[in-house]
Design goal:
The complex is a heterodimer of chains A (394) and B (99).
Chain A (H helix, E strand, L loop, with lengths): L18 E7 L9 E5 L2 E7 L5 E5 L13 E3 L2 E3 L6 E2 L5 E3 L17 E4 L2 E6 L27 E8 L4 H5 L6 H4 L3 E11 L2 E10 L12 E10 L3 E10 L2 E15 L2 E10 L7 H28 L15 H9 L10 H4 L2 E4 L3 H24 L20
Antiparallel strand pairs in A: 1-10, 2-3, 3-4, 5-6, 6-7, 7-8, 9-10, 11-17, 12-13, 12-18, 13-14, 14-15, 15-16, 16-17
Chain B lengths: L8 H12 L3 E4 L6 E5 L6 E4 L2 H6 L1 H5 L13 H12 L12
Antiparallel strand pairs in B: 1-2, 2-3
The chains are: A alpha+beta (394), B alpha+beta (99).
Amino acid sequence: MSDVRTLDQGHAPERFARGWHCLGLASTFADRKPHAIEAFGTKLVVWADTQGELNVLDGYCRHMGGDLTQGSVKGDEIACPFHDWRWGGDGKCKTIPYARRVPLRARTQRYETAIVNDQLLVWHDTEGSKADHDILPPQLPGLDEGLYTDWQWSSEHIEGSHCRELIDNVVDMAHFYYVHFAFPTSFRNVFEGHIATQFMESKGRPDKTEGYGDAELFLKSEATYYGPSYMINWLDTDYKGFNTEVILVNCHIPTGPDSFLLQYGITVKKPEGLDDKTTDFIATKYAEMFGSGFLQDVHIWKNKVPVQNPLLCEEDGPVYQLRRWYEQFYVDQAEVKGEMVDRFEFEVDTTKANEYWQDEVAENLRLKAEEDAASESAAESAGAEGEPSLMSGT
Amino acid sequence: MASFVPTSADTLEDQRLYTRARLTEVACLDCLACVGVKKNSEHHTSVQWDDEAKRHCPEMSRRDRLDGRAVTPACPRLVASIEAAARDGRIPIGAEDGY
């Protein structure tokens, strides 16, 4: 046996995860037009019926395969552009205008829906089980009461990576320093049932905010996956003594065996005494920061390989336990083992890492000061204040 | 049906090492819960529960999922029991090549 460590790239699963998946803000589907969503290796059609209820079906007509997303909404139904077959939100064909009767077997794949936090969620299970409403992500208190800004919603197509790469971040303490430029000073995980949580406290790296010596940004983050694809991240931020409560929803839809649509939404609790415009501005700023944070991750994913046998050091988080938890969504319900859902708690010792990182940053700052001194005469350009590095639990 | 399929037998051994090796049984000083504990350093702690332990722990069964955040924090009595066990030298402290 060779003592050279090899990477086991393994095989990605053939199925898509069982559970609730968010398709986007419900308001984007309300216009009585058909909407196309790539998901679960196919295309879905989403439309609002006359009551404003959102319906989701497989996007291809069971007659001759016409693309329903290019059809039109007629009454409560979606009409196929090919032969005008009319499909209802319950998955049944209601009318074929040119036919005497509808075949009894005219039933297509429908997806059960739920609206949570102004977003449209659908239940997916290859086994065809009924939707489990008990494991829906929670409705955020105060959202309906107008205590938060409107969601700032963004999405990003990721090609060439399985969505488990995104999940791995739940336990990846050190990447917050290297990829996202923050010092994680405290880092814990709890996995239990269908829930996986990361608790993190961090502060921004002063050496990574251009022209900005002492960005003092502290972050207390609690990020929980409710099932395989929907994470709520509560972020208490303290920037120069100004506290903001930010909520980030990070969710994704698997589109193919190695592709997914990453989506994220930001809302900010409206601070007392600030007008809506200022609050929206703060939310936009945070949305931009998190957006660029995700792009830092995306760059890594695009260039890395999958690995089934990561080699860990003492300062790493519980990657194997997280993946064992994640596995429950990829096996038949009857095959879910106790160890996949049993409670597991983990606390990373960040002491050694932070000692090293503090030294490294101090050295970076020293080098930068030298450079600055050398090019002082040329550095009179009116640079904007750098944005502090700020990271979510992703 | 298998999902993420490793292609090497060594990977299965890695999975065992990282998730199950070196877990020391620690009994709670206040209830009948018994969990598996690993400590790679003074500060690092890994706690593996099973169904039975959870049923015994009044803290776990009492707390329902409130405030929307759902996650149940660590049981303070169990944390104290683990700290006591570590102090008494009943939990070996240190990592074996990272696991």
